[in-house]
Amino acid sequence: MPHPVIFDRTLLRARRARAAASGPATFLIDRVADDMAGRLSAVLRSFDIAVDLGTPTDAVRRALAGRVGTVVAADPLAGSREPNVVSADEEALPFRDGSLDLVVSALALQFINDLPGTLVQIRRALKPDGLFLAAMVGGESLTELREAFAQAESETEGGVSPRVAPFADLRDLGALLQRAGFALPVTDIDRVTVRYATPLALMHDLRRMGAANALTERRRLPLRRATLRRLFEIYAARFADPDGRIRATFEIVWLSGWAPHESQQKPLRPGSAKTRLSDALHTVEISTGEKPGG
C-alpha cells in the first residue's frame, strides 16, 4: 500500500535553496546542533563513520567536528564539488546495510512523507550497536500561528485551509522507532519560545528557514489582505506579552535508538525478578481481589 504524500518535496527543496541563497535564519538549527553535540558527548564510545541526514545547513557537521571520525552529509541539494557530501534524498538512502556507526539528523525528518520507511532504512544502514540520533519539529510547534490562522480564515473566508504542517506526536515517534527495529528507543521534548515584534517577522523567519507551507493540499490562491490583517489582530490579542512582542513556540522532539546487538541490555523475562516490589518499598502486598482493611 503506497504511503500518503503529505509534503511537496520538490517545492521543499526549492524553498530550501532559496532560503540558503538569500540568507537563512539559523538560530533554531544552531541550537539543535549544539544540543546534539552535547548528547553525543555523553555516549561513552567512538563513532568512525557518521551520516548527517538531510540537515538543512552544515551546523551539525561543525558541532561534531573533532568528536566523530568522518561525517558525510546526505543532502538532496548537495553540489558535486563539496567534500564529504553526497546527493541523497532522505526517503531513498544510498548506503549499504551495516555500513554506518552513527546517523544524525536535525530538523529535516518532519518533512518526510514515508517516515516509517526512512527509519527502517536508517536502522538497516547502521552497524550492529550503531546509533541513530535525530531532532524533529514536534506536534505542538507553532500552535499560536495555527490557531490564529484558523480563526482568521474562518471569520473572513468562511472556512479553514491547511496552513501549518501536521507535525508528529512524541508517542507516535516512540512507537515508530520500535516498529523500525531499533533497540533501546528513547524520545523526549525540548520546547523553545521565540519572541517577535510582529507575526509578519515570524513568517519571514519561517521563509528564511525554508519552512513555509509545502503541504500538497495547501491552498494555491494568495492569502487575502483581510485575512492577513485579521490574523495579525488575533495573534496580538491572544499571544502577545505585556511589551507587545508576540510568542512563537517551537517543539523539538528528540529521538534515538540503537541497531540491535547482543551486548545491549535486555528486559528481564516476566516472573524472573528475585525481589518483591512491596519489599523494596516497605509496603504490604495486597493480592488480586483483596480489599485494603478487609
Q: What does this 3D model show about the protein?
A:
- The chain has a seven-stranded mixed β-sheet with strand order 3-2-1-4-5-7-6, with helices on both faces.
- The chain has a domain at 9-139 and 166-198 and 249-281: Vaccinia Virus protein VP39 (Rossmann fold).
- It starts with 8 loop residues before the first helix and ends in a 13-residue tail after the last helix.
- Helix content is 34%, strand content 20%.
- The longest helix has 15 residues, at 27-41.
- Strand 1, helix 3 and strand 2 (70-74) form a beta-alpha-beta unit.
- It has helices at 9-22, 27-41, 59-64, 115-125, 143-157, 170-179, 199-208, 225-239, 277-281; strands at residues 49-53, 70-74, 85-86, 100-106, 126-137, 183-196, 246-258.
- Helix 5 crosses helix 8 (225-239).
- It has nine helices and seven strands.
- The chain is α/β, with parallel strands linked by helices and 294 residues long.
